[in-house]
Design a protein that fits this description.
The complex is a heterodimer of chains A (269) and B (231).
Chain A (H helix, E strand, L loop, with lengths): L1 H9 L1 H5 L2 E9 L8 E10 L5 H14 L22 E2 L2 E2 L20 E5 L8 E3 L2 E2 L2 H10 L19 H11 L6 H5 L6 H12 L8 H14 L10 H5 L7 H15 L7
Parallel strand pairs in A: 1-5
Antiparallel strand pairs in A: 1-2, 3-4, 3-5, 6-7
Helix pairs in contact in A: 4-7, 4-8, 5-7, 7-8, 7-10, 8-10
Chain B lengths: L17 H26 L6 H12 L10 H31 L14 H4 L1 H20 L11 H9 L2 H28 L8 H27 L5
Helix pairs in contact in B: 1-3, 1-7, 1-8, 5-7, 7-8
The chains are: A alpha+beta (269), B mainly alpha (231).
Chain lengths: 269, 231
């Protein structure tokens, strides 16, 4: 109650009457047919709704009319799982640097027209409408292989010292949720920021050292095999990343890869 | 989940990995940048007069004489540059095609957030610079398309830049080259794994200042001819 009273002070019009929006959404029945943009209208959208809740409203409307609801991926809806991801008005996850589920309708104005498209990449084929198959990312992870740590009881916490700066940088890289916004935003549809985040995250820690060279050559070989583009260091990926993974990770991947190749590491075929 | 993907072609396995191709671009780019520095410094000799400029041109062709045969140093430089240009071009075309295959269907709406004009014009800008280099060699090195073909290097230079259209073409190409270097220096630093969050600002500042100085150093010559400071 208090919240709604506060918002009515700041935005009386929105409180009385929600936003009316025009949505242009990519509809594609299945991978074998051609898709197209279809226009829908939604009315009375609260600025406090998340973007996905707005799509839920649209889907309820479509179901009531007996139409096929729009398919889109989502899971946790709290910005940590990496499942959701839409191209909103030409930006991965829309105008805020966050996940689509954490984007709120207050980022839009009454009367706005919003274009919603799936991630576009050969390696991310459309399954239906806005849902794409991102298993290429899983295969890149798989190609990275294991790290040599003993299983069983947890080791004594002070047994392996990790410098604070390294652990911070490794954790920054480890925040990558694999949503695919980097690929979607990249003019080359390159997965470099994703792979670089994974390579950095393990490469900075002592536990990641034994397989460090093999990991980087195999992961880079796999991302090429999946049909992602090459990196041209333009920076669209980092600007779109909901976790703000930096371009520094890409430099680190390149450094590790060139070093590993010089040391004789070769990708498994 | 068992979704079959009709129409999804298994992508061709990249024969050489994309990061290695980028490293080839970076190293060949550095070779060309080193040459450009020497080239620009040499050009400025035009301000020391016709005799000095022509004798500099003669000196390049006779370095090491009489111990070495004529044009030894020049031939080595030319071979290194041809190898660099071919490698740079091969890697660029290969990565360009890989990027095209990676996104056959584009977005209806796409907004650029971070990219600079320089980074956006790398590919077509690079093609234009390549065509410019071909013209430039035919103009001032061989004299084939020069208005005053058979004369000395100094006179060929003055003859070319007295024509405002030729000068305009040089100016446009050099500005494109400057932008190419602005993004290229930053990109090469990243590709060779020498950048990090701390160095990022410095690398970008250096790339900008270096490109501006180099481009200005080249542009000063045609403008001096055009405005009659060199004739």
């Amino acid at each position: 109650m208090t919240a709604s009273m506060q918002s009515s002070v700041g935005n009386p019009a929105a409180e009385k009457r929600g936003m009316n929006l025009t949505l242009r959404i990519w509809r594609q029945k299945d991978p074998s047919v051609k898709g197209k943009m279809v226009t829908y209208k939604v009315t009375d959208i609260s600025p406090d709704m998340s973007f996905l809740e707005m799509l839920d409203v649209l889907n309820e409307q479509l179901i009531m009319q007996g139409d096929d609801p729009v398919a889109f991926d989502h899971d946790c809806r709290e910005g940590i799982c990496g499942m959701c991801g839409l191209m909103i008005n030409g930006q991965a996850h829309g105008p805020q640097q966050t996940t689509t589920c954490q984007l709120h309708m207050r980022s839009f104005k009454d009367g706005d027209s919003i274009d919603i498209e799936p991630w576009r990449a050969t390696a991310f084929p459309v399954i239906k409408d806005l849902a794409v198959d991102r298993r290429a990312f899983d295969r890149i992870i798989q190609a990275g292989g294991y790290i040599s740590v003993p299983t069983g009881t947890a080791p004594e916490a002070h047994a392996t010292p990790v410098p604070k700066a390294d652990s911070d940088a490794a954790f920054d890289a480890a925040t990558c949720i694999g949503c695919g916004a980097c690929v979607a935003a990249c003019p080359n549809a390159s997965s470099m920021l994703f792979t670089a985040a994974k390579v950095t995250h393990l490469g900075l820690l002592p536990q990641g050292q034994p397989e460090r060279d093999d990991r980087v050559v195999n992961m880079v070989a796999q991302q090429d095999r999946e049909g992602f583009g090459g990196c041209t260091n333009i920076g669209e990926c980092s600007a779109a990343c909901p976790k703000g993974i930096s371009m520094e990770t890409i430099s680190r991947l390149n450094h590790d890869l060139l070093g590993a190749l010089r040391a004789g590491a070769r990708p498994k075929s | 989940m068992t979704v079959t993907h009709a129409g999804r072609r298994t992508p061709k396995v990249a024969k050489t990995n994309s990061v290695v191709k980028k490293a080839v671009m970076a190293v060949s780019g550095i070779v060309m940048v080193l040459y450009l520095i020497a080239h620009m410094v040499g050009n400025l000799k035009v301000f020391t007069g016709r005799e000095s400029f022509n004798s500099y041109s003669e000196w390049i062709r006779t370095i090491g004489a009489p111990a070495l045969p004529p044009q030894t140093a020049l031939t080595i430089i030319r071979i290194a540059l041809i190898v660099a240009v071919v490698a740079h071009f091969w890697a660029a075309v290969s990565l360009w095609r890989q990027a095209k295959r990676a996104r056959p269907q584009g977005y209806v709406t796409k907004k650029a957030v971070a990219q600079s004009y320089a980074s956006r014009t790398m590919r077509w800008g690079g093609v234009i610079v390549l065509l410019f280099i071909v013209y430039h060699i035919l103009d001032l090195t061989t004299g084939t398309v020069n208005p005053d073909g058979d004369s000395s290097p100094y006179d060929r230079l003055v003859a070319s830049f007295s024509n405002p259209f030729i000068t305009a073409f040089y100016v446009i190409s050099l500005l494109l080259l400057g932008m190419h270097l602005r993004h290229g220096i930053w990109s090469a630093t990243q590709t060779l794994g020498q950048s990090n969050r701390r160095r990022e600002r410095t690398v970008n500042a250096f790339a900008l200042v270096f490109s501006v100085v180099l481009t200005a150093g080249f542009l000063i010559v045609p403008f001096s001819v055009l405005f009659g400071l060199v004739d």
